[in-house]
Design brief:
By secondary structure, this protein is an alpha+beta fold. Helix content is about 15%, strand content about 25%. It has 4 helices and 11 strands, in the order ββαβββαββββαββα. The strands form 4 sheets. It has a 3-stranded antiparallel sheet with strand order 1-11-10. The chain has a 3-stranded mixed sheet with strand order 3-2-4, with no helix packed on it. Strands 5-7-6 form a 3-stranded antiparallel sheet. The mean pLDDT is about 90.
Length: about 190
């Protein structure tokens, strides 16, 4: 099975960002989604997304969140196509600059699946946290049947998707993701 880092194509498709507003702290609230595994939808207030200045790129199904691209944002169509593969995820609505329906995909499943001893990683010398992963090795039974998941922050915080996720994107003509296979240690 092949795995891929979740990566929006910010070079070919429009991106969005959330401005820091002293009163609402929208950017901080949005970024907090990546660190939370409990449901947020019940109390969610849709944040207002802004286009990047001068962004004339086409709208895709997976706009990059410029200030933190690891948080998946999907179009209504992408949500409908991928929903059956997403497992413990919820769609948090945003107010998109086009007026079209887009959602933050809140992945409520952080899986400590990186086999750090067998992976090739670069660590922060001060904190010991993983800065980057050159080659991945997973504890395979932890991710069996998972089509999207996130690694813990101490393991890099990456959002990972599998080949079934990629196939669904490609077969349904969804646009805006780059799929580069993760280098896997054997």
């Amino acid at each position: 099975m092949k795995y891929y880092r979740y990566r929006p194509d910010a070079d070919a498709f429009a991106s969005v960002h959330f401005e820091v507003d002293v009163d609402s702290m929208e950017e901080h609230r949005v970024l907090g989604v990546h660190r939370c595994d409990s449901a947020l939808l019940e109390n969610w207030i849709p944040p207002i997304a802004r286009s990047l200045n001068g962004d004339t790129l086409a709208e895709g199904d997976f706009p990059s969140l410029s200030n933190f691209w690891r948080i998946p944002i999907v179009s209504q169509r992408a949500w409908e196509v991928l929903r059956s593969l997403l497992g413990r995820c919820e769609a948090l609505p945003i107010i998109h600059p086009t007026g079209n329906r887009y959602y933050i995909v809140h992945i409520m499943e952080t899986i400590d699946a990186l086999d750090e001893r067998r992976s090739e990683v670069a660590r922060n010398r001060t904190t010991g946290r993983i800065n980057s992963i050159r080659r991945y090795s997973f504890v395979w039974d932890r991710i069996h049947g998972k089509h999207i998941f996130k690694l813990p922050a101490d393991s890099g915080g990456e959002v990972i998707v599998d080949c079934r996720f990629r196939e669904a994107v490609e077969q349904n003509g969804l646009r805006g993701l780059v799929f580069t296979p993760l280098p896997i240690c054997v």
